[in-house]
Amino acid sequence: MFVVDNSLKVRFKDTETQLKARDVIENTLGEGYITALNLLADSPEWMAKIKANPMFLGLDLRGGVHFTMQVDMKAAMQKTFERYSGDIRRELRREKSAAARCVRLKTA
User: Fold this and answer.
1) What is the DSSP code (8-state) at residue 13?
2) 13 and 48 assigned to the same domain
3) Checking CA distances to 81, which of 29, 39, 50, 61 falls within 20 to 30 Å?
4) Residues ≥6 apart with Cβ < 8 Å to 99
5) pTM of the predicted model, to two decimals?
6) Residues 68, 65: Cα–Cα separation, whole Å
7) Do 104 and 86 have their domain in common?
8) Distance of alpha carbon 50 from alpha carbon 16, whole angstroms
């Protein structure tokens, strides 16, 4: 249960419980309040932070959240190699090693 923009939002485990709760709330509060059934996002917090908002579909299209991410593996590996070589260079300097340089060897 939480408040957003002057509205109380409550998450229930299933639709049947949600419908029963709506009836109880409407009967308790009377006509002075509006009770509406909505679908609340259940996305992980990290997705919300990168503005990856869910798509709200019709009832016939609901069924879960599918998240696909494409990774540029060549670029990711290049950045990893650069980071490792930088780490090695720093460590060699810290240890005052006589090594002149750190290079990546091409492999077949």
Assistant:
1) S
2) yes
3) 50
4) 92
5) 0.38
6) 10
7) yes
8) 33
